[in-house]
Amino acid sequence: MNYDILSLQNHPGMMDRAARWFHEKWGIPLAAYRESMAACLTRTGPVPQWYVAVAGGRIIGGLGVIENDFHDRKDLAPNVCAVYTEPDCRCRGVAGALLRHVCADMKARGIDTLYLVTDHTGFYERYGWEFLCMTQGDGEPDLTRLYIHREA
User: Fold this and answer.
1) Helix (H, G, I), strand (E, B) or coil at 99
2) Which of 23, 56, 62, 130 has the most CB atoms around it within 10 Å of its CB?
3) In angstroms, rounded to a whole number, what is the distance separating the alpha carbons of residues 64 and 139?
4) The whole model's pTM is what?
5) 145 Cα distance to chain centroid
6) Nearest 5°: phi and psi at 134?
7) Residue 14: C-alpha distances to residues 19, 28, 50, 54, 93 (Å)
């Protein structure tokens, strides 16, 4: 499968389309995505950042990097968030490529440790992520898994 991974910081024309795509996948208000993506275009710091995988003009996957992904461990930052691959593109390495890309890009920006909250077990370990602890999601009744990735 041929696709490109684009940083929205380098492709600002993709911002509105990407914001709508993430909103449709996760149900987070569209305005929240637009605000975070606009910040990645105007801030001088490395966070937030947003990335999409594009094949034939279609967004097939994406993820972001934000300070905190709505959990109580505010000391563990920044967080990879909103990892998603379109169902018909799964099991083709898209998510792994996105994860490798974001880790390398953030390392180039001076950040070698990233965190991620997820319900998945076994998936992120394939890409060098390690389970760190359980955390309480904002407004969530159950604890969720928090992972760490250190770029060598």
Assistant:
1) helix
2) 62
3) 21
4) 0.95
5) 16
6) -95, 150
7) 8, 18, 10, 10, 22
Partner residues linked to 66 by β-bridges: 79
Contacts of 133 (CB under 8 A, 6+ apart): 73, 146
Instruction: State the burial class of residue 1 (Cβ atoms within 10 Å of its Cβ: 0-12, 13-18, 19+).
Output: exposed
Instruction: Give the residue among 44, 18, 42, 45 at the shortest CA–CA distance from 32.
Output: 18
Residue 44 pLDDT level (bands cut at 50, 70, 90): confident
Separation CA 88–CA 112 (nearest Å): 32
